[in-house]
Amino acid sequence: MMDSTPPPETQLECFLASCTPVMNGMSSRDKGMARLLSRPSRSSRFDKVIERVNPNASTILDLGCGVGALTIKLAEKFPSSSIVGVDKSKYLLRKLQKKGVASTILADIPNLPVKEDVFDVAVAIQVLHEIVSMKDANALIHTLKQVCNSLRSGGELILFDHVSPGDAPILIRFSNDRLAKLKEFQTKFKHRKVTFQDRGDRLIRISMRDFYDFFTKIWALNTGLEEEEMHETHTPFTRQELRECLLKAGFKVKQALVYNTTPVRPRKGMAVQSKVRLPDRQVILVAGK
Ligand SMILES: C[S@@+](CC[C@H](N)C(=O)[O-])C[C@H]1O[C@@H](n2cnc3c(N)ncnc32)[C@H](O)[C@@H]1O
Predict the structure, then answer these.
(1) 4-8, 25-29, 30-34, 183-187: range with lowest mean pLDDT
(2) Is the beta carbon of 127 within 6 A of some atom in ligand 1?
(3) How far apart are the CA of 116 and the centre of ligand 1, in A?
(4) pLDDT computed for residue 27 by the predictor
């Protein structure tokens, strides 16, 4: 552990390999995203991640740090560690820079511009699904390899993300209002074609995957984040696919936990009629190099 920590921006040269900044001006998306990421309700997931960070870590990388809600907590918990936040959004990073607790890198994570063997811990909270949403397993493996290379021997990656529940069908009885929302989602979701069957009396047969994306994206309909959310999926990989990609990238999965111990609990207006177990919402995987 380091005894005295230089100011964050002077530490950065210890980590940077090269940097091609991502040009990204402020948009209404950025403002909406900043508000979303600053919600106090997100805090408990950060606590779960921090519990798993090796207390002896002297260097920590926060991948897709956004406004730095987790980064700031990490800096409080590990005051003598050097912490680096990476994000593609200049606007979001600026919010973290103002706090002066971490170095920041404006970059695209699949082209991570950091040196090899420099971090003890990397954390990636709800970012991998965004990175690979429009891509395939190879893109995920490539990204994970970059992260693996940046870790020192014995280093760990802590992942927190959505996972796809798979395509098995499920029967759900919707209220009129929720069914109207599902139809709105069906017309707006651009990532893939969402299909469902109306069996009468608002009883809908839909794949778990389509239901999961609907259920976890209702909030975005008719907001400033609708455009972005309708183009990406929360389900680009299953838990098993994520594990396999970690292995192919050179990691060993040491721990796998479900963050929401209860499965997706349909809100008012959606009652599950199938016997199948609804999917776990989000998982935490700890992977070692
Ligand atoms: C859902 S937010 C999560 C932010 C943060 N980890 C948290 O939990 O508060 C995803 C973040 O990843 C960033 N991001 C998405 N794709 C990225 C990429 N290819 N390179 C760098 N950052 C990316 C977004 O700008 C956004 O800040």
Answers:
(1) 4-8
(2) yes
(3) 22
(4) 67
